Amino acid sequence: MNGKATTTRTRLDRGRNALGPALELVHTGRAPTRAVLTAELGVTRATAGAVAAELEALGLIRVDSNPGAAAGSQGRPSHRLAVDEKGPVALAAQVHADGFRAALVGLGGTIVATAPGCVTVSADPAQVLGAVVDAGAALLEESGRRCVGAGLAAPSAVAEPEGTALNPLHLAWPAGAPVREIFAERVRAAGIEGPAFTGNDVNLAALAEHRHGAGRGARDLLCVATGHRGVGGALVLDGRLHTGSSGLALEVGHLTVNPEGRPCHCGSRGCLDVETDPLAFLTAAGRVPGPEVSLLQQSRDLLRTSPDDPGVRVAVGELIDRLGLGLAGLVNILNPDRIILGGLHRELLDADPERLRAVVADRSLWGRSGGVPILPCTLDHNSLVGAAELAWQPVLDDPLAALGREPV
Amino acid sequence: MNGKATTTRTRLDRGRNALGPALELVHTGRAPTRAVLTAELGVTRATAGAVAAELEALGLIRVDSNPGAAAGSQGRPSHRLAVDEKGPVALAAQVHADGFRAALVGLGGTIVATAPGCVTVSADPAQVLGAVVDAGAALLEESGRRCVGAGLAAPSAVAEPEGTALNPLHLAWPAGAPVREIFAERVRAAGIEGPAFTGNDVNLAALAEHRHGAGRGARDLLCVATGHRGVGGALVLDGRLHTGSSGLALEVGHLTVNPEGRPCHCGSRGCLDVETDPLAFLTAAGRVPGPEVSLLQQSRDLLRTSPDDPGVRVAVGELIDRLGLGLAGLVNILNPDRIILGGLHRELLDADPERLRAVVADRSLWGRSGGVPILPCTLDHNSLVGAAELAWQPVLDDPLAALGREPV
DNA sequence: CGTACTTTGTTTAGTAGCGGCACAAACTCA
DNA sequence: TGAGTTTGTGCCGCTACTAAACAAAGTACG
Fold first, then answer.
1. Which of A11, A233, A345, B36 is the most buried (most CB within 10 A)?
2. Within a 13 Å sphere around the CA of A365, how many CA atoms are in the beta-carbon half?
């Protein structure tokens, strides 16, 4: 009965530090129920409950109290957790050789809305980025949903920390164009909420595949892809992109994969870039590439329409051998626990998975003992989803701070 | 005057979670004073004070209340922090082609005592490891100091998580020898306190250089070295060794650096291994290696006694060009912010630093813009110090748990 | 040589963010 | 229907911190 006041407590006295990790678990589909969330976070049920309630109050996830069928297990059924499909979205943008594309991406990596990719060949980055941001702004307006930020996937290495595009070769953009700055400026100008980010498209594809696709659960994930000209690589270590000290890691295009191969603009010859990209494939198959559709599309068409054409078979074999040599070199250096292939490389893998795996195993020193799993990409528009991941990252790191709200 | 007991406090009610980070700061020389420690930890002065007092009570560091000369700055002089030179030690062991070496290493990476390396060529790992552990145990007995654990540097890739030596080529050991297990067993048998660890020597050298040598402050540190036959690599990312998913990362020996080069046992030709190791150097210089001392020592002697010999100059130039090509390939893949060279590669760098830097800058895509700093190793016995780091790591992670003491 | 200022260490009080526990709730199984 | 199992929730208290006031130990300057 003394006058000692009970300490006044705010509504949320638990789980503040676990909010980010918890959201990430739901975001990546690793916490389907509250019970799993409790185990994954390594906290008590009380804390996990507070966390889930807070994330629901923030409009980010839904906690389904009505489980219905509990499917076989004993005990009280656990509440289901899912991302809130009516929640905020990230604006994702991608520019590539054939044009651009804008989309809204919700938590969980689900594409909510897409603007059809327009073909806008322009040597002025500001013009193209302005167009893609405007398309995204229209989608946002239409949807009426809150925006957590914007992300751009660029088909070029992006230098850190400047954010300049170093080799926007097939965009006809000036080398060193400050794409991050231009994109951020356009996003601001369009009145879009939240911060703006820019990254390399293969890096972002790898990030997306790691969180929502074929890379789930990998610790050291290597991703290699080729879309138009040249080859891109990316590495995700412990769930984080390894971009290197200046953003230029995994520029794998100039690994030597054919000492007697064709000359490369880098001064060497037989580089991965010129030996395994779509142009190399079409050339090896004895085709003359036309200007109508992208080189990747022409390669795909060729592979699908005439897989048994002798020239195509020879080309597939040659490119697989070269790609395998490059991958083996990367395995010796990076020792990843999974490899994911995109673009034409993915098609090559599909065409003859055993041959590619055999080359990698044979040419990597330790690949023989089991071998590294080599898988195709599984996400549609993975670069776009990865761009959205950039925008979602602050929310995943600290939901309260990123959404600018007080705990409810 | 009511019966409400004041909450009983243990002696240390602060800084328990900051103990490890604080010790690491002192260990790596980044916290010379308590004021710096406060800033680096991002805690209040009160917490930092409690942390320093606790670490001192644990016998790990010394807090010097008598600063004496405060050197120019205003305000109250800060207490100086230093590792306790009378504190516990780690037992470090190294085996290499010419024998083995045992040492005691204190916090801060200082070698407290060394047993002279003995030449013991034996095909039996248990025998060699037994001998080196016995030498270490004798050092420990002599010093009378507490041991926190033992670490072994092996001249071979160490597979994770098995701990087997995959290619102990120049030790005449059987491939796949369970060195980690054997070493741990010998450590236990010798009655040495604490856990036992095993790692690759170049990896451990990189770790040591990152914490105490030329790699301090680097975020992405690449280390390349050659000692006898073959080339080793290591990568330290954000202060942690990147060993890859199965411990086999940075097996850089089979990068192609000379398409028309000599054949390698891997089936390819012109690999970094056979083009830049001491044997390659002696051969390129037109010398016939003798059996008396190690190939590295013969190379060093040659470089020091006849640096202007035409054959030597040609050999230096050739090997620098090949090494530069290999480093450039690694730069394109890893984009490190610093490169450290050891063994013969260090000598090559010393012989003509400009040439090596020029080759790397010219052949790496982005090296032109500034270029990666390439530095020689600075620590004596860095593999040995790195082996000790393995043993120190549990203490750095959680001093109270590792030393098995209650807070004082 | 004393006063003002600067910087660092210490003491005390308070509190955020958890864990632990007891209990309630919601299911399965026999 | 009751026992067993698993999950959610309210309450208490602890631990490791922060905040703030104060004390200590120097420099700068008249």
1. A345
2. 25
Question: Are B341 and B348 a contacting pair, CB within 8 Å?
Answer: yes
Q: Do B248 and A365 touch (CB under 8 A)?
A: yes
Give the one of A220, A233, A365 whose C-beta lies nearest to B266's C-beta: A365
What residues of chain B lie within 8 A of the CB of A255, using their CB? 329, 332-333
Mean pLDDT across A135-140: 97
DSSP-derived 3-state class of residue B237 = strand
Any atom of strand D under 7 A from CB of B3?
no
Three-state DSSP class for B239?
Answer: coil
Distance A13 CA to D12 C1' (A): 14
Residue type at B149 in one-letter notation = G
pLDDT digits (tens, 9 = 90+) for B74-85: 889 999 999 999
Q: Tell me whether residue A72 is in a domain.
A: no
Quick: pLDDT tens for B276-308. 999 999 999 999 999 888 999 999 999 999 999
- Whether omega before B289 lies within 30 degrees of 0, making that bond cis, reads no
Cβ-based contacts of A220 with chain B (< 8 Å): 244-245
- Are residue A106 and residue A148 in the same domain, yes or no? yes
Q: Give the structural domain span for B311.
A: 217-376
Our measurement of CA B70 to C1' C6, in angstroms, reads: 14
Instruction: Answer yes or no: do A118 and A241 share one domain.
Output: no
**Which protein residue's Cα is closest to nucleotide D7 at C1'?**
A76
* Residues A4-29 pLDDT 10s: 334 445 567 899 999 999 999 999 99
- Identify the CATH number of the domain in which residue B108 sits: 3.30.420.40
| B400 lies in some domain | no
Q: How many CB pairs under 8 A join A and B?
A: 105
Q: What is the spatial distance between Cα A345 and Cα A204, in angstroms, rounded to a whole number? A: 17
- Residue B46 approaches strand D within 7 Å at CB: yes
The C1' atom of C22 and the CA atom of A77 lie apart, in whole Å, by: 21
Both B233 and B364 in one domain: the answer is yes
User: Which amino acid is present at A328?
Assistant: A
The first and second tokens of residue B388, run together, are 């000790």
Model confidence at A171, in pLDDT bands (50, 70, 90)? confident
Q: What is the pLDDT of residue A12?
A: 76
* CB within 8 Å: A329 and B266: no
Residues A94 and A45 in one domain: no
Q: Does residue B2 register a pLDDT over 50?
A: no
**CB–CB of B344/B299 below 8 Å?**
yes
Contact B235, B222 (CB under 8 A): yes
Do residue B234 and residue B313 come from a single domain?
yes
* B275 and B366 in a common domain: yes
Report which residue is nearest nucleotide D10 when distances run from CA to C1'.
A46
Contacts of B193 (CB under 8 A, 6+ apart): B146, B147, B148, B149
Chain B span 15-34 residues with beta carbon within 7 Å of strand D = 15-18
The pLDDT tens digits of the residues spanning A175-228 come to 899 999 999 999 999 999 999 999 999 999 999 999 999 999 999 999 999 988
Contacts of B233 in chain A (CB under 8 A): 333
CA distances from B372 to A266, A330, B89, B218 (A): 18, 21, 36, 11
Is A245–B219 a contact, with Cβ atoms under 8 angstroms apart?
yes
Task: Say yes or no: B356 and B242 in one domain.
Answer: yes
- Residue A5 belongs to a domain: no
Residue in chain B closest to A236 (alpha carbons) equals B244
Domain count, chain B: 3
Q: Name the residue among A20, A73, A104, A44 with its Cα closest to residue A385.
A: A104
Residue B6's pLDDT is 40
Task: Indicate which CATH number applies to the domain containing B33.
Answer: 1.10.10.10
B303 near B313, Cβ under 8 Å? no
Residue A208 lies in a domain: no
D15 C1' – B60 CA distance, angstroms? 24
